[in-house]
Amino acid sequence: MITILKDRLSLLKTNAINSYRVQTAYFFENWASLASTTFYVLTMLLFIKIVYANVNTFAGYKENEMIFLILFGQLNFYTDWIWNSNNILSFIESVRSGELDLILSKPIPSLFFVTFRDISLINRLKDGIPNILLISFLIDWKNIYTSWDKVLIGIFIFICGQVSWHCFRFLFALPVFFIGQSGQLFQLSGTLAETNDIPLEGFTGALRTVFISIIPSLITAQMSVSVILGKSNPLPMLLIALTVAVSFLILKQIGWIISLRHYSSASS
Amino acid sequence: MSNIIEVNNLSKQFKIRTNKNLITGMFDPKYQLVEAVKDVSFEVREGESLAFLGPNGAGKTTTTKMLTGLIYPTAGNIKVFEYTPFDRKKDFLMQIGLVMGNKTGLSWDLTGAQSFDFIKKIYHIEDSKYKATLSNLCELLDVNKHLNKQIRKLSLGERMKMELIGAILHSPKVLFLDEPTIGLDITSKKNIRTFLREIQRNSNITLILTSHDMDDVEKVCDRVLVINKGAKAYDDDIQKLVDQYNKKKFIKVYFESLPDNLNAYSYAEIEKTELDVVTFAVEKSLVSRLISEVVNKNSVLDIDIISVPLEEIIEDIFKRSPNVSSLV
């Protein structure tokens, strides 16, 4: 067990170093993404200002709490960007091009490798930190009422949400093994996350159940924020988040095994 | 030497969707089964160099992919050092190397040195052994000056050399090569063939080569396994195959003027007569007798002795299969 963990950590470290080398090979290209994300954050903040100029609360959230939710939405976005989307896209491409052959023929845990192949840590931190700092400065922290236990549970829920969301999107990528392409399906899975800026409390009944369990897009940011701000009971939420994450991890593993059985490998 | 690979009754079928209509294809996709490999059996001994030959779509790459555990067979058994390849056990993968001429295993954006460093980590190669092997391979392939260039900036030949280093840096016991010289110029091809032969002889690596290029096969392999339409058509020593086909030699004689006594050589067949040039087909043992008699009795300008090239031999096997029993 310790050897497996050591091997995987070593692989993770090597992938992070290689990703850094790839990113720094194209220096000027890197700054365009910072401009793009900053523009998005400014637009979002302007939208919040306009909405709260006319209403006091939205789905039970005051303006300050809503900016706090946006902070988590952004953290979710950058975490996802650091490892999730890039890796799934390059995985789809590697199946299509047959490059997966050369991954499968190496003595590495292949599913782990394709999941963490590209860890764009430096680039994404460079894009993310200025925006996250900007949003953080706009939050009136004195008026965020929480406690350490809620924060810790909120962070754990955030991680569970990331895991669930990654597995969910990965399952949308797997048809590439059967039909030779899954780029559009993967895009579709991304569109299902467009609920990111609506608080958890804005979803009720069946809608909330669907967006927590079947399409797990509400866990990472909304559920975490709801728990941190004391709007939801932490322990049941933690249990739900953990159950969903474990279920999706199992589904991902099963999907991977079945898909490899059907891998025909691109012709050479 | 012991068998390192054992393949029994191996088959692989692919399901191809035939109804590609946007609407009806969703409800009634219709599939056709294509047999890529049909009931193939063979063994490979340790240190052997075997070539899979066959026309496009014959099933040779599919067989290689099943041997390396990339795809699952529909039927049959494969054992590579007692492992079932598609279980993809770490110990099995540690002992094989794979090079695919059309695919790159090294990251395009990294340099060769950075990529090899990654390989060193995943195969847990000791630092001193890594340095020694890398230096030796780089010298053999003359790529020292390219080690710190991005892979994408290298020429195809240089890239293929890097791919080869990446595939054997961990000293595999079996090296699978799928079209390793495809698209390369004559010099690069020659270098790679010489290199492969050298590592096969010196390091006792078992080589399994898939290629369309007969020169690759002749220069690198001792044994040839011809696959046609998914089935095995020939499996034996390459020299034996050439000898079987070259029991007869073709003697092309350029006479000053066409003689009348051509029927005097009853032990030789006249294959072709063209102006003053006659091509005789004669048993290998009678070649010198024919030449000496022809030269003594006639005025001869020139003589060519022609063997059947491997390319034509293989083409003949393709034409004859799948009637395997009627082959040489």
Automatic annotation (TrEMBL), chain A:
Q: Indicate whether Transmembrane appears among the record's keywords.
A: yes
UniProt xrefs under InterPro entries: ABC-2_transporter-like
Write out the transmembrane intervals. 31-52, 151-179, 210-230, 237-258
The region annotated as signal peptide is none
Q: Name one Pfam family in it.
A: ABC2_membrane_6
**Which UniProt keywords are given for this protein, alphabetically ordered?**
Membrane, Transmembrane, Transmembrane helix
| Protein name as annotated | ABC-2 family transporter protein
Which species does this protein come from? candidate division WWE3 bacterium
UniProtKB/TrEMBL annotation, chain B:
Keywords in alphabetical order, please. Answer: ATP-binding, Nucleotide-binding, Transport
The record's section on InterPro entries has:
AAA+_ATPase, ABC_transporter-like_ATP-bd, ABC_transporter-like_CS, ABC_transporter_ATP-binding, P-loop_NTPase
Q: Which SUPFAM superfamilies match?
A: P-loop containing nucleoside triphosphate hydrolases (SSF52540)
Q: Looking at the record's lineage, which domain of life comes first?
A: Bacteria
GO MF terms listed in the record are:
ATP binding; ATP hydrolysis activity
Q: Name one Pfam family in it.
A: ABC_tran
Stretches assigned to the ABC transporter domain: 5-254
Q: Per its UniProt record, what PANTHER family does this chain match?
A: ABC TRANSPORTER ATP-BINDING PROTEIN, ABC TRANSPORTER RELATED
Protein known as: ATP-binding cassette domain-containing protein
